[in-house]
Design goal:
mainly beta, Immunoglobulin-like, 3 domains, six-stranded mixed sheet, 24 strands
């Protein structure tokens, strides 16, 4: 009688677990590994691990972070089972659903570039073990199989450093602007973009920013290279996308940024808008009357009333000519 009762209780328990699995939407479609969002296996090979055989499907897709959705329909967890992770043969730990910790867990792991291998450790006790693996683009790359063996079950080629695409650059002389545009990589690891001018970082923007405009008014005439590089929480060595152009700024470009005051002047003239290297003052017949270096304030108290021309050399090397009226 006692054995009969134990047998009946065991049957009821098994049927309850199976029924829970059947009712659980996370596990209801288990039975074969599936890949969504147009991901397709590029190779299928048979491997050997001692006495055990397994199949690994090799996929090529972007991504660095992996999201694991873990489920136990019975609610108990995985008592002695886990997913072992290696990258190019280096151990990167395990992912598991803690025993008696509940029936569901979500975990995100950041992994470097290389061949990522997922190995099942333990006895696959369907329907207690259900899991899905997603890449950085949030595409599901693996769904657990009820017949998964105690060995390597999936291999994935991980490419971390994803360059931006659709990069365009333009220089508009009329507005003195450099305009850059690009398309962001589809990766949840993306932190933003670094923008360089002649290999010098000039701006960091967040991951939602897909354009940048630079005012060239203050630049010296010459060759310029603007580059944009996506930023990740790990080291990437790919080359930036770059736009190269020649910028030529003439006097009229700089004339708009220099300001002289007061004008008419009495005893002094103030110059703002740029770093001054040298200032020369000429009368209306071209005679040099004043010549001074590195000053933004010019003493004109010794000059008679009239109209004068200032030749102003700024730090870019350009010379700007301004007219000034002196009226004591």
């Amino acid at each position: 009688m006692k054995k009969t009762v134990i047998f009946l209780l065991s049957v009821i328990l098994i049927m309850t677990i199976v029924n829970l699995a059947a009712q659980n939407p996370f596990c209801e479609k288990l039975g074969s590994s599936v890949v969504r969002n147009t991901l397709k296996p590029t190779t299928k090979t048979m491997h050997s691990d001692g006495q055990k055989s397994y199949r690994s499907a090799h996929f090529e897709e972007e991504g660095c972070s992996f999201k694991f959705l873990l489920e136990d329909p019975a609610g108990g967890g995985w008592p002695s089972d886990w997913i072992q992770i290696t990258v190019d043969g280096v151990d990167y730990g395990t992912v598991t659903l803690p025993w008696l910790g509940g029936g569901y867990a979500e975990e995100i792991r950041k992994l470097p570039s290389g061949e990522v291998q997922f190995r099942w450790i333990g006895i696959f006790n369907y329907p207690r073990h259900c899991f899905e693996i997603y890449n950085s683009s949030d595409s599901m790359i693996y769904k657990s199989d009820k017949n998964i063996p105690d060995t390597l079950f999936f291999t994935y080629q991980n490419e971390c450093c994803i360059p931006l695409t659709g990069f365009e650059g333009e220089y508009i002389l009329e507005t003195n602007r450099i305009n850059l545009r690009w398309t962001a990589p589809t990766s949840v690891d993306l932190q933003g973009f670094d923008i360089f001018r002649n290999d010098v970082l000039i701006k960091h923007v967040d991951f939602s920013t897909l354009s940048y405009s630079d005012n060239t008014t203050y630049l010296a005439t010459g060759d310029y290279k603007y580059c944009v590089k996506p930023v990740y929480p790990f080291l990437c060595t790919f080359e930036e996308e770059c736009f190269e152009t020649y910028i030529e700024l003439d006097i009229k470009n700089y004339a708009s940024i220099l300001h002289l005051y007061p004008n008419p002047a009495n005893n002094t003239v103030n110059i703002t808008g740029a770093d001054i290297i040298n200032v020369k003052v000429f009368n209306n017949v071209g005679q040099l009357l004043l010549n001074q270096d590195n000053k933004n304030v010019i003493n004109v108290s010794a000059l008679t009333n009239g109209i004068y021309i200032l030749s102003i050399k700024i730090s870019t090397g350009n010379i700007i000519y301004k007219k000034i009226i002196i009226n004591h």
